[in-house]
Amino acid sequence: MIRFLIKRTAQAAVVLLLVSVIVFVLLHQLPGGPARAILGPKATPQAVEHFNHQQGYDRSLPLQYVKYLGRLLTGDLGESYKLNQTVSSLLADRLPKTLVLTGLAIALAAVLAIPLGILQAVRRGRAADYLLTGMAFLAYATPVFFLGLVLILVFSQRLQLFPAEAPQADTVGGILGDLPGLVLPVVTMALGVIAAFSRYMRSAVLDNLGEEYVRTARAKGQSSARIMARHVLRNALIPLATLLGLYLPTLFSGALVVESMFNYPGMGLLFWNAAQGSDFPVLLGVTFVVGVATVIGSLITDIAYAVLDPRIRSVS
Amino acid sequence: MTATAAGTAPAAAETAVPTPSLARRTLAVFTRNKLALAGAVVLVALSAFCFLGPLFHSTDQVHTDLGQANLAPGSPGHPLGTTDLGYDMLGRLMTGGRTSLEVGLAAGLLATFIGTVYGSVAGYFGGWLDAAMMRITDAALAIPALFLLVVVAAIVTPSKLVLILIIASVAWLSPARLIRGEALALRSRDYIHAMRLMGGGGTRAVFRHIVPNAIGTVVVNATFQIADAILYVAYLSFLGLSIPPPAADWGSMLSAGITYTQVGYWWLIFPPGIAIVLVVAAFNFIGDGLRDAFDVRLQKSGGNR
User: Fold this and answer.
1) Given an 8 Å threshold on Cβ–Cβ distance, is B273 in contact with A291?
2) pLDDT of A131 above 50
3) What is the mean pLDDT of chain B?
4) Position B191 in a domain
5) SS3 per residue for chain A
6) Residues B271, B215: contact at Cβ < 8 Å?
């Protein structure tokens, strides 16, 4: 177990280092360098030179990378070109709000997807199963933003049930206090996750229903409900929990679209605004943080899986 | 494949030993798998609509006409209404669809090609080269594709060609991993050893043996890649980072419609949205059908967008 932990953590560290290289390379791929991007095409050569010197872009690339890495390690992600704040302080403000949005979406998805998946597995091959399968395939093919627009048209414009703008409060508490405003963004984000999780749950329950231990339990005279709750569900939920870790990139992408659409003041909106305004320190800072979160997410997933299921350890 | 043999009973008796050709197997699956067939039909219909449609319904998609702005569907000459700048919606759906389909197809194929070569090289040569190459894909995959796409699209101003290159430069990662696994399994086969004993080199092994033998995985993955690429185009356009106006694609049409949701101009939203859903679902169904045809086992990521 310890060996597995060390090996897996070392691997994650290497990947993290490479993520930093990718972000660094992207920073230097800007046409004409970052100076042109921020000072504009009409900047004088002197201004460009001054900017490059001030930002350290005139030194050799390896040296710049080492400096960059050193700053990353101390949590310094640079300073926004537009917002007059450090990227880390912007993230400290926005990241929790994104976590609230994704957390609510995941909670809603889990609450709905688990019973739906069980229902489909139990009623396999019947009308309900086909209907839900069809809906899941439809949800796979539907871009998040189209779904969001349809929800706005129906529930905000036509029925006037929920506002089309997300809560605009400064604090996490303020955002949670405006529940009607959260409904459409959270539902938009959750639907794709529900489709994926319920498909997964369906096949996990089906796999477990075919296992010997279910037959044994049945032979002992246990009721179907009890078998489902005590045996099948427990075993089917372990992989679902780990699926969550692998789903992080999708969730972040979803947050990017949903936040820019509903004007939700999270990390995704920060990123989108930075893309519109060529605010490269913010763009690359967010990209780096999202990459780190994904790597750590899959590391935790693997470790959790190894703890829950000893067979994994011996294989890897 | 017994069902295939039964379907072509007279011929099957004589040609029972050789396996049916790739094309024949594909055809057989398409006639059996109704969803794949439906996907193919939808795809042909949508392509005809986008590429041949303008011959029957010709519109001006370059010059704005504010006198004709925001007309509801059913207005004379504008069966699907007009946009806020007076473009005819039906005609725009065609021109926009051409961009989405062309860029999606080209980017999906290019990504598959790059991924196939990269993955076969890593898998065939193995060792430290494989380890290094795979850590690079791990790192790039750790950053969600959409974030990478947005950063790159913010750096360069996209044209059609640039858009294809941007999407392919991000999307090749997952086929690379997939094909690498396939190549790892193939490299220890006897015919590869035999080829090496006869003096065949690495290039020959990769292009003459590994890639042709992994072709099922490659083709199946290509269809899913195209579906994903069409979605990526739409996402980028929706976020305002695609080909600038007056050019359009289905994603940018949706993004133009967002301003008018509060006044209920639904015809700006539904046609392009439904078109995207149809074409993406069609490619996914075709991919599922092909997967059954080639009997390929691969995890469809289902997300990672």
Assistant:
1) no
2) yes
3) 80
4) yes
5) CHHHHHHHHHHHHHHHHHHHHHHHHHHHCCCCHHHHHHHCCCCCHHHHHHHHHHHCCCCCHHHHHHHHHHHHHCCCCCECCCCCCEHHHHHHHHHHHHHHHHHHHHHHHHHHHHHHHHHHHHCCCCHHHHHHHHHHHHHHHCCHHHHHHHHHHHHHHHCCCCCCCCCCCCCHHHHHHCHHHHHHHHHHHHHHHHHHHHHHHHHHHHHHHCCHHHHHHHHCCCCHHHHHHHHHHHHHHHHHHHHHHHCHHHHHHHHHHHHHHHCCCCHHHHHHHHHHCCCHHHHHHHHHHHHHHHHHHHHHHHHHHHHHCHHHHHHC
6) no
All domains in chain A, ordered by first residue: 88-315 (1.10.3720.10)
CATH code of B278's domain: 1.10.3720.10
Between B59 and B147, name the one with better pLDDT.
Answer: B147
List, for residues B73-88, the tens digit of each pLDDT value.
777 777 777 777 778 8
The reply to whether residue A256 touches residue B150, judged by beta carbons under 8 angstroms, is: yes
Cβ contact B277–A140 (<8 Å): no
In a domain, B1, yes or no: no
- B99 Cα to chain A: minimum distance (Å): 17
- Percent share of chain B, pLDDT over 90: 12
- Residue B297, classed as helix, strand or coil, is coil
Interface contact A15-B135, CB threshold 8 A: yes
Q: What integer is the mean pLDDT of B57-84?
A: 74
Does residue B24 sit within a domain? no
- Note down the domain range covering B174: 34-47+80-303
Residue that is written with structure tokens 């095409």 in the block? A41
Nearest residue in chain A measured CA to CA from B134: A15
Phi, psi of A82 (to 5 degrees): -110, -35
Closest partner residue to B303 among A137, A196, A283, by Cβ? A196
Nearest residue in chain B measured CA to CA from A259: B239
A-chain residue closest to B250, CA distance: A146
**What would the mean pLDDT of B157-177 be, rounded to a whole number?**
88
For residue B62, tell me if it sits in a domain: no
Number of domains chain B is built from = 1
State the Rg of chain A over Cα. Answer: 24
In which band, very low, low, confident or very high, does the pLDDT at B115 lie, cut at 50, 70 and 90?
very high
- For position A311, what pLDDT does the model report? 66
- From B139, B156, B254, residue closest to A31, measured CB to CB: B156
pLDDT digits (tens, 9 = 90+) for B178-231: 888 888 888 878 888 888 888 877 788 888 888 888 888 888 889 889 998 999
Closest chain A residue by Cα to residue B260: A153
State pLDDT tens for residues A230-270.
778 877 877 777 777 778 888 898 999 999 888 899 899 99
Is residue A313's pLDDT more than 80?
no
Q: Give yes or no for a contact between A285 and A86, defined as CB atoms under 8 angstroms apart.
A: no
